[in-house]
């Protein structure tokens, strides 16, 4: 029980400064790639999320290895001189098993440790509750969807967008629902595109191509399944504001990446930007749901930044782009991998425990 508390405290308290460092380095790396494609910045933030969890876990594993390999003191024996009696314990008291206590560990009082662990489990339970609630809400949303009937207009739009994005017309299920104000994608193994009923009633080619094209990019990238993975990775880190920043940047760069691909292969940037403004303007009612369980055209609350990114088209030569990618990658990975050696160890203040008298010796002394 004590070792598990030590491991969790080591993970928790080291994560406080390690996650902040990872987020800072990821911010600098993302800034260096500001003129590159958004997918590169997306990879940076995804790597930052994995490092934010992996580095504290590596620190805790090092602590566990040191605990496992630590020597345990045993009572010394002496020869009594009598061949019949053989060896005897040199001390009249038995020593209780020695618990590991590192000399370089920071000691925490038990009330403080219990308070920190209780607060962490409270935050963890709240985050798990929200994730499960959002998952149930998404399942309910899926049951309210209605499969669209075969329509030449809809089929042509879907086929055109699918061919432009994947190079071939791939079948994808498109449904409608009156419970969503913006297009979303749900489903891990068989993704389904859910369109608002009002959008279909408008019969606007540009809006429909923008919506279906954007969601098809999510389907191609498997963003729904990856989003669930990111949410599960974020769950044990949800106590940290820097982890929330990393999670938010992942969502934002994911939408920017989809926007770039749609503007490159389906619609020109100006037309798609106009459609994006109209589609995303009705997003606030779905924002809480889309944060955790769905991926859609209005996930990131950065509409202005998305429009500016579409209209601004900076171009870098291949050699400079490659150098920037290498530099940003090294800036993020090298310091993050080096901080594990500077991790701190935390332990509980040892409690005083009495020694147990040897019953045989105690009886002999009474005689």
List the helices and strands and how they pair.
Elements lengths: L1 H31 L5 H31 L8 E3 L7 E3 L3 E2 L11 E3 L1 H35 L1 E2 L4 H15 L6 E5 L6 E3 L5 E5 H6 L2 H17 L1 H12 L6 H25 L3 H12 L6 H6 L2 E2 L6 H9 L6 H21 L7 E3 L7 E2 L1 H8 L1
Parallel strand pairs: 4-10, 6-8
Antiparallel strand pairs: 1-2, 3-11, 5-6, 7-8, 7-9
Structure description:
The protein is globular. It has 2 domains: 1-108 and 315-367, no CATH class; 149-314, no CATH class. With 367 residues, the chain is α+β, with helices and mostly antiparallel strands. The longest helix has 35 residues, at 110-144. Helix content is 62%, strand content 9%. It has helices at 2-32, 38-68, 110-144, 152-166, 197-202, 205-221, 223-234, 241-265, 269-280, 287-292, 303-311, 318-338, 359-366; strands at 77-79, 87-89, 93-94, 106-108, 146-147, 173-177, 184-186, 192-196, 295-296, 346-348, 356-357. The strands form 4 sheets. The protein has a 5-stranded mixed sheet with strand order 5-6-8-7-9, with helices on both faces. The chain has a two-stranded antiparallel sheet with strand order 1-2. A two-stranded antiparallel sheet has the order 3-11.
Shape: globular
Q: What string gives the helices and strands in order?
A: HHEEEEHEHEEEHHHHHHEHHEEH
Terminal-residue CA separation: 41 Å
Helix coverage percent:
55-70%
Q: List the total number of helices.
A: 13
What's the total count of β strands?
Answer: 11
Q: Could you say how many structural domains there are in total?
A: 2
């Amino acid at each position: 029980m004590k070792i598990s508390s030590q491991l969790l405290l080591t993970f928790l308290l080291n994560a406080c400064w390690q996650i902040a460092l990872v987020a800072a380095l990821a911010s600098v790396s993302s800034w260096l790639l500001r003129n590159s494609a958004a997918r590169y910045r997306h990879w940076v933030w995804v790597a930052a999320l994995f490092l934010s969890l992996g580095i504290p876990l590596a620190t805790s594993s090092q602590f566990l290895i040191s605990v496992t390999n630590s020597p345990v003191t045993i009572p010394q024996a002496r020869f009594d001189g009598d061949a019949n009696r053989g060896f005897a314990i040199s001390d009249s008291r038995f020593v209780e098993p020695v618990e590991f206590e590192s000399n370089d560990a920071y000691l925490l009082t038990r009330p403080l440790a219990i308070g920190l662990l209780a607060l962490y489990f409270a935050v963890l339970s709240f985050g798990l509750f929200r994730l499960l609630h959002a998952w149930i809400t998404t399942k309910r949303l899926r049951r309210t969807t209605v499969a669209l009937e075969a329509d030449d207009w809809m089929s042509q739009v879907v086929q055109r967008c699918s061919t432009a994005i994947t190079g071939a017309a791939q079948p994808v299920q498109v449904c409608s629902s009156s419970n969503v104000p913006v297009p979303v994608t749900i489903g891990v193994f068989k993704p389904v595109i859910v369109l608002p009923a009002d959008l279909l009633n408008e019969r606007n080619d540009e809006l429909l191509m923008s919506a279906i094209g954007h969601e098809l990019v999510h389907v191609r990238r498997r963003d729904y399944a990856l989003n669930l993975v990111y949410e599960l990775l974020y769950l044990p880190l949800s106590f940290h504001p820097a982890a929330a920043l990393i999670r938010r940047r992942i969502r934002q760069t994911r939408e920017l990446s989809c926007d770039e691909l749609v503007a490159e292969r389906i619609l020109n940037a100006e037309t798609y930007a106009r459609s994006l403004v109209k589609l995303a303007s009705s997003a606030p009612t779905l924002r809480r749901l889309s944060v955790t369980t769905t991926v859609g055209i209005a996930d990131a609350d950065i509409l202005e930044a998305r429009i500016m990114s579409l209209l601004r088209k900076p171009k870098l030569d291949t050699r400079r782009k490659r150098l920037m990618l290498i530099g940003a990658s090294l800036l993020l990975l090298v310091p993050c991998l080096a901080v594990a050696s500077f991790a701190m160890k935390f332990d509980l203040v040892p409690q005083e425990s009495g020694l147990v008298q040897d019953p045989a010796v105690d009886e002999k002394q009474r005689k």
